[in-house]
Amino acid sequence: MKSKLGKSLTDTEWVEIVALGPGIRMYKGKKTHFYNGEKIWEGMLTFIRHNLVYNWEERQTWEVIIVLPGVEIIPWNTFNGCSNLETVIMPDTVKRIEVGAFCQCKCLVYIRLSRNLEYIGNWAFDSCALLETVIMPDTVKRIEVGAFCQCKCLVYIRLSRNLEYIGESAFESCESLTSIFIPPSCRKIDDKAFLRCTHLLMVVKKKQDRNLGRRIYQGTAFIKKLTSECVKHGFYNQQSKEAAVQWIRSIQQGEAKALHSACASCNPVFETIYALVKQRGIKAMRMENLFGFTPSHFLSANPYSEIEEGDLVKKYILEMMGEVV
């Protein structure tokens, strides 16, 4: 069986164990290594082309899922409850992940999303307790209700630059999440989107609109740092909304406001940031805004940035030395 995902697969003996109709097949191999161009895994490999229904015992044996090229939709509940599933590789043909597709995959650690993914459905990754990193392509426009709810180990997420909607409870109880950068394209954040993200402190949303739901940040470190009244009321009321607007504006306040903004941008540019550093001096990277964050904090947490502060410092020092000489 040939595959674009790696030569090692062609040397494996595969057995067709399910045939439910044209194009509906599952192949299951022995424990082996395989290569996808970037990384090597070892585990039970399962290939799936369409939504199949298997008995519960069979589903618990799946450890690595490779979705075949040509698949455009991961249907409802396809891998729901696969408690030993650890790795998922998607081809770039996948455009939609439907309701509960990977819900309750409690051992899921790594998922390679399609570069052309547009839609993540309700509860798609709900209770994937070991999932730590999610890197979304810029084609994703909607994250629906509870999509990453109770992903308690999720520490890093890069949202699509073209994201338009974050659904109710989309990231509820993501207890390890410390920062979130929301692109200006996002038109609406629904109720309880980040409810009980207890360590969430850095929230960057530059677009100053009011199309925000209730209780978005209740129970987060962020809301506790705003006003005591927010915590007292316990929901996203008018008072806490005004405080949140103050927070959004705060990244553009203070002596280094332009530098804060440049480092928190969804499209950070090295030359722009360096020009501001050169203008204000390297100490500007340590200037705090109203909530205690510096440009350095924003730059290091920014999921859209590949700029290293060390490179800025190095260039600054070399230029200063050149001027002295």
Automatic annotation (TrEMBL):
Domain of life the protein comes from: Eukaryota
InterPro entries in alphabetical order: LRR_5, LRR_dom_sf, Surface_bspA-like
Signal sequence extent: none
A Pfam family: LRR_5
Designated name of the protein: Leucine-rich repeat domain-containing protein
Species name: Chaetoceros tenuissimus
